[in-house]
Amino acid sequence: MKPIELHIATSLPDALQFLAQHGQETAVLAGGTDLHLRIRSGRENPPRVLDISRLDELRGIGLEPAGAAVATAGANGEPTVRLGALVTHARAAASPDVLRHVPLLAEGCLTVGSPQIRNLGTVGGNCITGSRAGDSLPALMALDAELVLRSTAGERRVKMTQFFVGARTADRRRDELLTHILIPGQSPTERSGYIKFAQRKAMAISVASVAMRLEMEPGDPRRCRRAAVALGNLHQSVIRARGVEAALIGQVIDEATIDRAAGAAAGEVAPRDDVRASAEYRLAMVRALVRQAIERLTAPEAAYTGVSAR
Q: Residue 72 contacts by C-beta under 8 Å, 6 or more apart in sequence?
């Protein structure tokens, strides 16, 4: 293994200048939970590593007025959560702003790895790594999040639904750094949940996962007004399940509607065989998980136990 040059960024301008000069041959280190493993296993050997872990300006969690930051925000009058790229999964899951305004993200972050991994791994790092099994990614995609990318040339924003262009491949230039994630606040009248199926309950990579948001018609609590669904570890990257959403929006949620939605989910994915499950098993699982998510989110109030309830 060749020696790796380490540059520890002292400021955001310092980090951006380094990427402007060396971005094509530089890996960015945030929490390090993925990059360390890839280097130690020999799967990656970058000539240079840029350590951004000391940039306090990327650790903040705050609120912006409705519609001020994200193009898709503001329709429900809720503020946008502005999450620094270095916010850890543990901190996001415990943040009062996240729990109040985007509880679906908190639920996804709570399922990441072990407590040690959640205390080190960052939400921004999860986005850049782009693993199809990343637990925060389906939640962010179902929440219509936008990613803020910075370079010495300026700022660019990319919708989460358009960010992943292939397996572990994202729409990020090598001179760009992910600095913030902008997440439109959820409507107080919607329910949301993240369901992950894995080989054990903790410290396991998902076999399949679903993040879902549902809002029912005020005058007809069985009819779906809005839906957002994202699927994890069922395609080459995390995907937004538009077919499932179309099967739900405007429909009365009954057994026939749930069957159509589950079938639509299986038709949108292209799972693969791996050491955790076969493609055939994953197709069966996505049907079951979508069904479970819909039933959970449309259950009577007394039976609804999702942490995302408000």
A: 144, 146, 159, 184
